[in-house]
Design a protein that fits this description.
The chain has 198 residues and is an all-alpha fold. It has one domain. It is built from 9 helices and no strands. The chain has helices at 2-7, 16-21, 29-48, 50-58, 60-65, 70-109, 115-137, 145-163, 169-197.
Length: 198
């Protein structure tokens, strides 16, 4: 669609480039205030309805049995998600926003089983990715901010994948080796006892 529109007369005025890839470097103070206001509203919504959301997301039938309206919860959930996307589109664009919705949450999952802690860690990973990506892109001329933010988020994901204390590859490998040693020790113990009896 971008290629077709850009080939038409005045296609470069369509704004699709900034919509798809973002324009974090050209944001002004009013944009930052708007985004901060929307972000605070989303955070308040999450804090106020945290227990209800957790019930609705993990056990909708139980939530319905407690009297929670599934349609109301769905509307609130979609409203929060769409507002989050709107906040990020101007900074990183549509394509990279999809990555930022997924990568920090998946990275956080490697560190904890707690839903609350996972949300906090995802927010930290997302914030650090934004700060680091913006800092790196500012070091060069014409370096796009959005892709560097996603690269930073991907680095956090790789670190979490390897070193995460819940499901990290390194931790799982160490646990597997420990279980293997225990199994070998348990299998050898009966043999040692039998030799001692003789």
């Amino acid at each position: 669609m971008l290629s077709i529109v850009n080939r038409t007369g005045g296609g470069n005025q369509s704004g699709l480039d900034t919509f798809i890839f973002g324009q974090a470097a050209s944001m002004v103070r009013s944009d930052v205030y708007t985004m901060a206001g929307l972000a605070v509203a989303i955070i308040l919504l999450i804090v106020i309805a945290f227990k209800e959301w957790k019930l609705y997301l993990f056990d909708p039938d139980f939530a319905k049995g407690l009297g929670l309206s599934s349609s109301t919860m769905n509307v609130l959930y979609v409203f929060g998600l769409v507002t989050t996307i709107v906040i990020g589109i101007q900074a990183v664009g549509v394509i990279l926003m999809a990555a930022l919705l997924i990568i920090p949450a998946v990275s956080a999952r490697y560190w904890t089983h707690s839903f609350k802690m996972m949300m906090i860690l995802a927010a930290i990973f997302g914030g650090l990715s934004g700060a680091l990506g913006t800092f790196v892109s500012a070091q060069g001329t014409g370096w796009p901010t959005g892709p560097f933010i996603v690269i930073a988020a991907s680095i956090f994901f790789i670190i979490s994948l390897v070193f995460g204390k819940e499901k990290g590859l390194l931790v799982e490998q160490v646990e597997f080796k420990n279980q293997q040693r225990k199994a070998i020790a348990q299998n050898e113990l009966p043999g040692v006892l039998k030799e001692g009896d003789h």
